[in-house]
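Notes to self after the Tuesday call (sharing in case useful).
The group wants a holo model before anyone commits to mutagenesis around the pocket. I volunteered. Ligand is adenosine monophosphate. Logging inputs and output together so the record is complete.
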Amino acid sequence: MARASIIRKTASDFRVLPNWADYEQVRSEFSWEKVQKELTGLPGGGLNIAFEAIERHAQGAWRDRVAFRFLGAGPDRAVTYHELSVLTNRFANLLGNLGIGKGDRLFVLLGRIPELYISVLGSLKNGTVACPLFSAFGPEPIATRLTLGEARVLVTTEQLYRRKVEKIRDSLPGLRHVLLVPEHGDPSADIPGTLDLSRLMAESADDFETVATQAEDMALLHFTSGTTGTPKGAVHVHGAAATHWATGKYALDLHPDDIYWCTADPGWVTGTSYGIIAPLLHGVTSIVDEADFDAERWYRILQQQQVTVWYTAPTAIRMLMKAGGEMARKYSFPKLRFIASVGEPLNPEAVWWGKETLGLPIHDNWWQTETGGIMIANTPAFDIKPGSMGRPLPGIDAFIVSRDEQGNVHIVEAPDSKGELALKRGWPSMFRGYLNNEERYRKCFAGDLYLTGDLATRDQDGYFWFIGRSDDVIKSSGHLIGPFEVESALMEHPAVAEAGVIGKPDETAGEVVKAFVSLKTGYEASDSLRMELLGHARKRLGAAVAPKEIDFLPMLPRTRSGKIMRRLLKARELGLPEGDTSTLEGQA
Ligand code: AMP
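Result:
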């Protein structure tokens, strides 16, 4: 059935009055200076994300409000703002006792359990830079990131330590402390070179004066993948809280009484900016589920927890769609009032599915690790065009740009022109650098414009439409995966001469990682070698990053300068035109 190209909002779409209704007016009256005034600031001057997120509620009328409700295998655990204040104070104190201070780097390798949230927030209170990693990473991505990020402390579990960290520990001389979360409530076994987090927490004092960080001090480090080279550590500062507050208000429509569920893992920037910081800034109750996706479980959570605002991702929505309408109809969501999604293109079909199955359209929004917060969004303040990422939020100016032959960047004014998506620099949560890589950072800018690396169009009504990446980076189930990291792991296998990795379109995951390898002399392509290589990559990289498919080729297409032409591998895989192959090695 042909569907309308626009979903018009009516009063019945809103179960409470939204935070804004007039897009043009709010944008014209908006200023970041006004938003800064919504933040309290530290009593002695300065700004600290954790203080804003916890202390101003814990020391006020909302102290007994639930900040997080953790769902896991055991009974639910609710933590109030006051309890969160005490727990994070203890964590900050224990860091101080270990000699860890402002600017030191703390990495967290944990599932979505309370200790993850306490470590990140306690670390921020102490002025220590927090870097959450996916617990699904294998030893190699972990070692790369801990090394690049100059990790001083790692918080993990005994099991994850034994499986993933023990074998790389010798390669991390700068890692001074490993704090282990006890499993199943038992104290951690006495593993040499580690400390028991529960013991340290019990011995630490309840009071802590937040370290006097400034808005420009580094707060968080999030690794993101590029086409080449090692992952890039995007540096974020405490001042980013202003963006988190504003976007929580305008893009997620957070109200103080909300029960909010952000399904993202804090190993991805969404799980930190919107799974930890933004909801706490607004004093809402967040649901955190430790378990992986399961359609029936997710519907149950939405219903039982009476979720009002839900922030999720296209892969999950597509999996719910696949599970079928019958399952959805077993549940009801009378309290749910706003749904948003991020991370990959959201098919128009999925926006309609939300409207028809859950009673609410899904609001797609766009941002990336570097932007630190939502930039372009479908919001309560205007109609939805399914398939569009929406319009720039207040305080954000977005453009489509093109490059001329000299490499100069120009803003393209004509609607519907295809080009790179660019943003005018200056919003508070913009990354302040790639760690130890000034050159790569500088390349992201042309004068006042930050170049996002995404291709898009803008229509005459100012809505932005995603086209694709301008590079070879892969987006699989919301994870940004650098082909280089996967190729490097494959090349460590003795049989592999060269490897080229692409994203292959997939109905559910958006893209899946597919590798092409050529073999060294003396090795024969076979199904058993394919299985061995898949296993090898999975062990080194972890399930989230490893390829799902491997094909053998006698040799890989390379440019004359020796670069693997992933674009060509992809075109051949998909049966598409090969485009310009003039730089292909061996071409006349
Ligand atoms: P990450 O830094 O891992 O969050 O990935 C950011 C990238 O994900 C963007 O540069 C886009 O390529 C993609 N992305 C994020 N949100 C959307 C969206 N709403 N529609 C299409 N692509 C998106």
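Two things stood out.
The mean pLDDT is 94.
The two ends are 50 Å apart (CA to CA).
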